[in-house]
Amino acid sequence: MGKSKLKKILYLLLCTAILGLVSCTRTPQADRIFTNGHIITMNEDMPEAEAFAVKKGFIIAVGTNAEMRDTYPVAEEVDLEGKDVMPGIIESHGHMLNLGRREMRINLQEINDPREIMQKLRESVAETPPGEWIVGWGWDDGAWKEQMTAISQELSSVSPNNPVWFAGLHGYNGWANAKALEMAGLTKDTPDPEGGKIYKDSETGEPTGILANAAQGMVTRLMPPLTVEQREKAFEIAGEELLKNGLTSVHDARITRKDLDALRALKTQKKLRVRYYVMLDCTDEELIGPYLQNGPEIDPDNWLTIRCIKIFQDGSLGTRSALMFEPYSDAPDVLGVTTTSQEEIEKLTIQSLQAGMQVATHAIGDRSNRITLDAYEASIKVVPEAKDHRLRIEHAQVVALEDIPRFKELDIVTSMQPPHATSDMPWAEDRVGPERIKGAYAWRSFLDAGVRVPLNSDFPGETLNPFYGMYAAETRQTPEGKPEGGWYPEQCLTREEVLHAYTVESAYSGFEEHIKGKIAPGRLADFIVISDNILTISSKALLSLKVERTYIGGQLVYSRNASR
Ligand SMILES: [Zn+2]
Predict the structure, then answer these.
(1) Tell me, what's the pLDDT at 123?
(2) What is the sign, positive or negative, of the torsion defined by CA atoms of 459, 461, 463, 466?
(3) CB-facing half-sphere around the CA of 372: CA atoms within 13 A
(4) pTM assigned to the model
(5) Mean pLDDT of 394-398
(6) Separation in Å, CA 163 to CA 183, 534, 563
(7) What pLDDT is recorded for position 140?
(8) What percentage of the chain carries pLDDT values higher than 90?
(9) Rounded to 5 degrees, what are φ and ψ at 344?
(10) How would you class 73 by CB atoms within 10 Å of its CB: exposed for 0-12, middle for 13-18, buried for 19 or more?
(11) Is the Cβ–Cβ distance between 1 and 10 less than 8 Å?
């Protein structure tokens, strides 16, 4: 027996003698132990467990019921009742303000009857003072194609004195009533703005009220900007929504200065609801300036960390504004648009790397992805000391096949959205044709090339339910199971891969794998209790999987029972 071991035993004996059997001062402490669960840890050293212990918001030990009870005899015990438990899911690309605002506006999603739209508008007119804006969101561009003109005219008769703006589901089109058009000064003589279209009546030439892409700004810029209080409310509503869906952290993919003010205020009031990893809007120099000088702001409390600069390189595939090498297969004159040039991306990336900030660039089209890769490659050469840079490309939706290995060579974190594939599959191949589609939504190809791929939803354009995202990633089918066998099924992922992508990889994409993504010692006690065993249920069953309870820092923050 070694000397130190002998000493330890003597000490323990002394302790016991002095204090009795109940509380030896060296008994390790935990605030709580969670026992009797089926715990899916996402930790390869111990993939499943029965129990774990939490102290000061962190997990300190994982193991069997007996181990936790023996080691932490005085901790409060929470019985998990044999339920399935997994780490809190991390939404690594979402838009909180837009999600919260959606709840604050008239919800037009899933309405199929124009009379229902008018009914909602009538109710709103009755309670809104004349002249004030009435805003709605969520009508589906595809579903309403034939009736759009008639609807926008009816909006004018139902609401003659209040300007109305009803934005489409994906943000590409909006409906304005006559009052809003009048305030914007839009007449039959107004030309289309660059990158936008003012739909006009084929007989009278008057604007119909339908505005597409950049033309929407002619009306939306007249709306008073949200106050900090309205922003706070929107963030709070969004936070509640995430907790319900089992999401305990979010990477907010575009934060403005006013948003940041609201988030800071919420943090002070302890009302953030979920943990934030902030991507700052790169177009606001005053906002990003201090971070490019001083580097990241990592929150010691792990609620509001600011570490990333968000750049937009191009547009979207649906509107044919994603930047392509060759014209769109269904629009031979269209190549897409550039929002930020390669030179600008390079300049911002060099500054960010020097300051220790991460960069995340939105790139959808094949040319846009190439430009971003080239800019990143050049930047890494200039700042070779930034080894663990984790530069991100958001979406990487249509990529030239020969570029996929470059994501690995340059160590680019590739953040992809399975729900985009299942939403876009009816028309994506029309846009890009049979060749380019092979490098589209190609998460399997990226994983096989050794690239790190966090998966996420890009809500609120898509549902934030992560189990739907997992379903989409592994089936590449609609919820109804179409098409049979899946759309380009060779790109499907396994359950193990999707779980990893929504937890461990998403944590990694924000430099937070040491505190998030697993139920393991040293990680934040952010976890969820779910209604079934996510390791073994079918893909279809993911769609009905429920979040029973959500915990952040070991505290219960959502319970399905309580909210029912
Ligand atoms: Zn986004």
Answers:
(1) 94
(2) negative
(3) 37
(4) 0.86
(5) 98
(6) 8, 48, 36
(7) 78
(8) 81
(9) -65, -40
(10) middle
(11) no
Residue (of 198, 217, 220) closest to 209 by Cα position = 198
Strand partners, 85: 39, 529
C-alpha dihedral sign at 281, 300, 94, 395: positive
How is 288-347 classified by DSSP, letter by letter?
HHHHHHH--B--TTSSEEEEEEEEE----TTTT-S--SS-BTTBTT-----SS-HHHHHH
**Token pair listed for 477:** 């089918």
- Residue 225 CA to residue 212 CA, distance in Å, equals 21
Give the distance (Å) from ligand 1 centre to CA of residue 555.
30
Give the contacts of 475 (CB within 8 A, at least 6 positions apart).
Answer: 481, 486, 492, 539
Query: Three-state SS string across 441-500, please?
Result: CCHHHHHHCCCCCCECCCCCCCCCCHHHHHHHHHHCCCCCCCCCCCCCHHHCCCHHHHHH
How many whole angstroms from 93 Cα to the centroid of ligand 1? 6
CA 556 to chain centre: 22
CA angle 373, 376, 381 (to 5 degrees): 125
| For residues 352-375, average pLDDT | 98
Centre of ligand 1 to C-alpha 170, Å, is 11
- Strand ranges in 128-234 using DSSP code E only, listed in sequence order: 134-139, 164-168, 173-176, 196-200, 207-213
User: How far apart are the C-alpha atoms of 58 and 468, rounded to whole Å?
Assistant: 29
Rounded to the nearest 10°, the torsion over CA 492, 497, 499, 505 is -120
How many Å lie between the centroid of ligand 1 and the Cα of residue 269? Answer: 27
With a cut of 80, say whether residue 509 has pLDDT above it: yes
Evaluate whether 35 touches 79 at the Cβ level (below 8 Å): yes
Q: Give the C-alpha separation, 119 to 117, whole Å.
A: 5
How much distance in Å is there from the Cα of 304 to the middle of ligand 1? 19
Q: How far is the CA of 418 from the centre of ligand 1 (A)?
A: 13
Please choose, from the candidates 366, 384, 454, 447, the residue with its C-alpha nearest in 3D space to the C-alpha of residue 418: 454
Q: Is the pLDDT of residue 133 over 90?
A: yes
Name the nearest CA neighbour of 372 among 428, 421, 327, 311. Answer: 311
Answer whether 53's CB lies under 8 Å from 60's CB: yes
